[in-house]
């Protein structure tokens, strides 16, 4: 990228009256230099089967070009027109809930050839038309693609072939998945039942993996079409979204981001997060780290919130804080979904930068200051290179396996455990990458944190042991190593394979009720010293016990252990303690790994993020994620605060307003 | 009406043994002078297709006539016989939940021609047979008719024609409903998808309006048939029911009462309400005012509770209090559902006046006193004329729109806002009418209260502005004016159109959390001064601010405003405050409108209702809705308490027992 | 039985690697002398239609025989193979939720002839093959059989014939079920609608009774086949399970245990119960008493928990306590489900005696001590004869009727009322039998407790009156007598029929809110003196009032009464008081019935159970169901504590560890 991009999704088609010139005028005033168009409006561009009308695309491209605003064109394939469903009802995905109903987006069967035929045609028509337009800098293929739980007979048919390919014989399959149980054996491929009703988690998880593969294939197929038209100066991207809990929350269960991202030139993400008093920057950081790690370089924030919901309307200052937080994680683009609030249909209350009155409002006014600063500082802030020494290993397989075998109570999911660990690192200003099972870069990290790696191959666990042996440091949580990649529980002593590195074993686990850690070993005080939900009854073999349970019957068992193994150290957390205890355990591991420095003396709500800019100088972002002003001593080399252009000296006092930002450029790392 | 009617629904068909003479004996003893029959028992009257058996009707009519008890005959069309469903399964309504199942009542497609054919036949057979019988004073068509969510292909087909009729072209439709969004455009009428899965609230709300029209049409069709047989001295009525929350609660979402009532001679209602310690009279008043306002005159309570559920079994005195409360709102009939408790099926625990043992019981004994007093006072209490100076404007469209776009949290519905306002007026003894968007009588009121008028036409909002300009007083709540009649959010500055009269504007709104009104402006104390759920960030243009928000970021915005506009005043409540604050705001508006008088010095639980009787004298009801005796000074002209026949002098002391009633007839208004 | 059986369910088919010899070695070490095999693995034994493979059966039988371990062979019919469903999808039960999906067990239509054909074939193949094997001591037919809500058209067709058989004419049917209501009449058998959507509880309950009959017939059919092969020294049993609330909780709604048990030689049960701090022994006792009462003699515990769920993992000592508790109720077998934890599929976390690592663990170690003690004491503890003087009457009909007409709030079910009464007797060490409506042994008891007998025939109520008249003592709760066996509410004065014996009547009932018993008549203190959910407004005719309600309006009515009737006494509890009040009322009734003795001076958590062993001596079990050691005076004849072989003298001190057991053999009763 040559320029920081500050953008909005723009829907000329949704406008209640002619607004294009006025919209562009207001965009320019706010420093908007990018719009994304066309990705939601297939029925406008192809009002009838084979009848095309790109009026709104053409006029927007021309007008944006004239105004010097870049355009990303989206393929409009995630929301299908009425005529298609009327002609070919079978384009709708059959799901475990039955046949589909027209209405919402993302309801089609992404493997249906009729759908694919029409999708390819509209892509070729649209991209063929716009690819030479000077305003177009790139393409977004589809939108937050997932598999939409497609599982009709045709999908089942393909799944059987996929399984046959992987296992060869029914005998291998029956053995791998334990299908003797409850008479579920498949003794002939012809007997393969629909997987929709299965109670076998191994089979169910294999189907989920297959469905994720469908997404990977679909995106690769779209990219291959768009690539035929793409100019050398253009890119293909996709807006991956995340596990959702009213906001972006964790690993996306339905997509293998790492595999799917192979098809695109630049990884992109949609990041939505709590706001107002609940704004912490955690989702911006987690989703940013995840997306940056897909290709190990800078990424796009293709969607994030402007005003959004009534409970997300930003406090003064928060829109700025958010924008620079994205940059600090390595984003080269911050794009709002969307420019204007929509006057009809289901996202009416998901407000854009403009309210429904389409005039200025306080959030828009704040955006103007961001646009100004992005333009001013683009050269210094773009293409930030980040080199983190810690990483968190996440896994679709582990996530799926814990959907099949949830923790007791059902309230703590895999992503909760991921975030329990990640968020503590964030609070301590430990910069992180995200690792995926396919990553081949374990060795470059001093610390790897492994939350609840319930399902993993022998090979992955052996690699983790090897990493420790060679001097790496790992912090595991409970459940790690328990099952293989087919979610078959291992019959070795638990935790299987990694027990070697951790120096522990256990044969029983219980729900934690009225349990604490004996003697408050981490000095977190009575209110934070309790254990909840889960506890493995650990017996150390070679490990040192960091904490025992305090319980009338299980008091002899270890809760948290640490083991020297080869040149490295493996910590194992066998239970669900409080955030405070997790933080202390991670701090200990960070210190062991040599990751503790001056930035760790600051803690959330003061967040520090850093990287190297194109000039080779260090950019350090300081964020105040709180409603109170803060002030602290700046510990690094003398630098310049770029927003105010003030010189900041080592050990000088740095003050941040509530929800404030400072950006210091300095020499050194 | 010549006589106050005190009645019961009577089901000879349900009796476990021959009881007719004994029932009539007990009815006479209780002063029952009316029964409603036949409306639930189609399968008894037509046991096989085309085979009729009106034995139970004939014998009941004869016996009642002999006993001097009037009869309303109901058409039995709301519960269909087994033979019909077996022969023609497609008479069952297809709903969003799929095809229907036989069992419950109100499960048919009210547009199905097979059903309509059989319904017409049984109506003609039954009404033709009974219409000359001297016992019959009138007819109830069907029972609590609604559309039962019928939405199968035939209904969809009619809906498309209805939409075509309203919008003319798909282009108009797409524009009005914003169907470009998510590729929902209908570019050809042939493409019109089933509305069942739609995510477009405009389309969904139009379908709801269409479904309400089906109900209006169905009732008009039934009335037209019955009218062919009706004697001049007979009437047609219908028992409208209300939005339900375990009891009658507010506006009925599925019926346009105002439109549907055009077909009947006398408006009727089914009114069910909490009891025991939760008896307040509010539902009796709200539903009574609603029904009276349909035709601007007296109405029937065709169903209300006798013993009903275990948690409704009335305390001693409550049955009397309820009966006279109905009269005080203008009812000419109080009819219990039902005479005897049923020994089988789903309403076994919805007990009638008699328990399952069919003998006397304490509630029946109390009914005897009511029958006695109704007979004694009939001439004085019948045909009470009420002239209220305040009104509450309600709207099916607003209700539907807030089902599509609910308030945050989903716990506060349109009807909750309606009742929040109405109930405060009730507590202050402000007599109310109910206005509907079709009402043409705005100008006759000094005060109109407008709760959450989310969806409304330009014309309606302009009429409301005009009303204020001409000297009227309005109190609006939040959300009013936000969208047009197609639930398209207006792109004018909000609150659109009415912002002129209210002298305010806003472009942002948020969820209210930990927010209060600055400085407790209404002096309600800390526990009642908070704001919840919703707050619009109001900026006054010409309005006076009655309350600001107390919030670290939104403190500069107004919460409640008042504006002089032309000759009148418009108050706007931009948030959801406590009942106490609402009461203070309404009290202020009442005083401005000149509605504050001596009756307002009394407050709930002492309720005063009044009207003019046929002799032109004022009847004033005093109710004690509490478990403690009360005593107060009677402020009006000297009068006679009709139950005790005591003279009550101005400023004399009036005492009411717990759950007690007094009725004073006096000169003057 | 010649020997106490200590067993496990064993699945060679599920093993992740060859383990048979090692498993047998570990079983022998734990004293396991019984395994149950084959009941879950049809698809292993018949991998394709008509292709049989009994390898795992043969090899396990041989190996067990060699090791001296007995085998029960289960018919594998409760979980069907994939090939059957692929060939004949209609073997899946159609239920109110629609057609079935393959995956889980217990999803077939137990009346489907295709299923029955294949089921009979596999039974004959399997049982014919194993019946002569010396290891086989008996057979379990099917597994926890229920009707799985089968209600498709074929079942409906049979139901109509069943109804025709019972009622003869539609007229009788309409009358019995009150089908005039809501036009539900069936005026011709051809019109009979599917019962799935019915709102008529009488019809619904009749269908439930019919479905239970299907279960009875199915088990009798299976037994008749197995009986053809059974050797004289072998038995047929079945593992009945119970109403489920996360554990065995009460009467099984879907099976008539009493009727179904006629088909088997020995009654068996699956008993699962809370553990750890929630272990009380109540479910062990209730389910044991229920199963023993089916045939009036000793029974099998065919399944109970070893480690099971994380929240059930037993504390040290609990596995022993549980095992001997089963024996104390008359069990001759304690069998764990299951030997080893399963590595795949839905019951992965329902752990067996072995953990997934298949090695020893603390629970397995404790099982070894049980095996040792069972072997040592088998002769003394086997075939314990119990003679209880109290009984609790339970009824499928009453349970179903209270599903149709639940108590207000929906939180208190029939089984809750059953357990409310039963558990208090348990806590007072009153040994109980369970009576069913078909039982003919009322007269042998001094006290019968009758919880919520909502639906009962005239004949049953008359028998209960007769029982009291002849000197028996009954404690009824509310709702008893209210409806007949068709759930038609009786039109006599309530409580109908039994009102004679109880000396009371009522015509009204209400929900209990803020109600207490006047003057705390049972001296339970304010916190336990309240009444909840339900109160009948009782008026005594001849009864003595034990408690009045304290309520501003219902204070004149009685809550609990006692009446002398003939030679006996009938107590009636007209409301839902606290456990403490129930206990006091039951204590009073026990004293009246002469059931109060030295064992009643001990109370829960000290539990005493006794019986006569084969030598004619009295065995008394003392259990400490608490986490604290207890000590008390032993009040009976001198005896020997069998586990320690210590002499215990009358009035000697007996000490029990936490969760401890003592077993004393002595003369006398």
From TrEMBL, chains A, B, C:
Positions annotated to bind substrate: 105, 143, 312
Domain of life: Bacteria
GO cellular component, as recorded: beta-galactosidase complex
GO molecular function: beta-galactosidase activity; metal ion binding
Domain Beta-galactosidase trimerisation: 390-595
Beta-galactosidase C-terminal domain location: 622-665
Keywords linked to the UniProt accession: Glycosidase, Hydrolase, Metal-binding, Zinc
Name under which the protein is recorded: Beta-galactosidase
Residues in the signal sequence: none
Record: active site: 144, 303
Family as reported in the entry's similarity comment: Belongs to the glycosyl hydrolase 42 family.
């Amino acid at each position: 990228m040559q320029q920081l991009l500050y953008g909005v999704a723009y829907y000329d088609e949704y406008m209640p009256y002619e607004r294009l010139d006025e919209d562009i005028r207001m965009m320019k005033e706010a420093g908007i230099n990018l719009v994304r168009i066309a990705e939601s409006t297939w029925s406008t561009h192809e009002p009838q089967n084979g009848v095309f009308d790109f009026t709104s695309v053409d006029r927007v491209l021309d007008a944006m070009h004239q105004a010097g605003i870049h355009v990303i064109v989206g393929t409009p394939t995630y929301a299908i027109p009425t005529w298609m469903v009327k002609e070919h009802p079978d384009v709708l995905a059959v799901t475990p809930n039955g046949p589909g109903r027209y209405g919402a987006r993302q309801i089609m069967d992404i493997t249906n050839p009729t759908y694919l035929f029409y999708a390819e045609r509209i892509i070729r028509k649209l991209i063929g038309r716009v690819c030479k337009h000077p305003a177009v800098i790139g393409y977004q293929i589809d939108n937050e693609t997932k598999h939409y739980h497609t599982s009709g007979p045709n999908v089942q048919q393909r799944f059987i072939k996929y399984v046959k390919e992987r296992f060869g014989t029914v005998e291998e399959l029956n053995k791998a998945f334990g299908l003797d149980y409850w008479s579920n054996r498949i003794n002939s491929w012809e007997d393969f039942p629909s997987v929709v009703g299965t109670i076998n988690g191994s089979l169910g998880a294999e189907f989920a993996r297959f469905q994720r593969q469908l997404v990977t294939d679909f995106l690769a197929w779209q990219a291959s079409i768009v690539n035929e038209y793409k100019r050398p100066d253009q890119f293909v991207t996709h807006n991956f979204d995340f596990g959702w809990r009213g906001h972006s929350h964790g690993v996306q269960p339905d997509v293998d981001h790492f595999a799917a991202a192979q098809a695109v030139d630049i990884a992109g993400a949609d990041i939505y997060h709590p706001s107002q008093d609940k704004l912490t920057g955690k989702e911006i950081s987690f989703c940013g780290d995840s997306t940056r790690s897909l290709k190990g370089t800078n990424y796009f924030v293709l969607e994030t919130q402007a005003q959004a919901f009534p409970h997300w309307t930003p406090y003064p200052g928060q829109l700025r804080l958010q924008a620079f937080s994205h940059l600090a994680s390595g984003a080269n683009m911050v794009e709002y979904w969307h420019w204007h609030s929509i006057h009809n249909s289901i996202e009416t209350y998901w407000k854009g930068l403009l309210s429904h009155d389409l005039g200025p409002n306080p959030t828009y006014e704040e955006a103007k200051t961001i646009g100004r600063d992005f333009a001013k500082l683009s050269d210094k802030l773009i293409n930030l290179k980040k080199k983190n020494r810690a990483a968190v290993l996440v896994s679709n397989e582990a996530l799926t396996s814990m959907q099949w075998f949830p923790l007791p109570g059902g309230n703590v999911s895999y992503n909760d455990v991921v975030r329990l660990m990640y968020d503590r690192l964030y609070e301590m200003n430990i910069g992180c990458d995200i690792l995926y099972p396919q990553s081949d870069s374990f060795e470059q990290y001093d610390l790897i944190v492994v939350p609840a790696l319930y399902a993993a191959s022998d090979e992955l666990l052996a690699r983790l042991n090897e990493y420790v042996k060679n001097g790496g440091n790992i912090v595991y949580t409970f459940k790690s190593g328990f099952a293989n990649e087919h979610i078959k529980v291992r019959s070795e002593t638990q935790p299987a394979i990694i027990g070697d590195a951790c120096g522990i074993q256990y044969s029983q686990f219980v729900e934690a009720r009225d349990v604490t850690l004996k003697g408050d070993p981490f000095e977190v005080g009575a209110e934070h010293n309790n254990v909840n939900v889960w506890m493995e009854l650990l017996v150390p073999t070679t490990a040192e016990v960091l904490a025992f349970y305090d319980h009338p019957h299980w008091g002899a068992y270890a809760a948290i252990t640490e083991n020297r193994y080869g040149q490295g150290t493996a910590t194992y957390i066998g239970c669900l303690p409080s955030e405070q205890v997790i933080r202390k355990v991670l701090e200990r591991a960070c210190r062991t790994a040599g990751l503790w420095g001056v930035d760790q003396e600051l803690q959330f709500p003061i967040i520090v993020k850093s990287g190297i800019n194109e000039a080779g100088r260090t950019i350090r972002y300081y964020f105040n994620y709180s409603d109170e002003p803060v002030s602290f001593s700046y510990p690094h080399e003398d630098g310049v605060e770029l927003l105010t252009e003030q010189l900041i000296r080592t050990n000088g006092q740095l003050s941040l307003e509530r929800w404030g930002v400072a950006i210091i450029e300095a020499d050194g790392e």
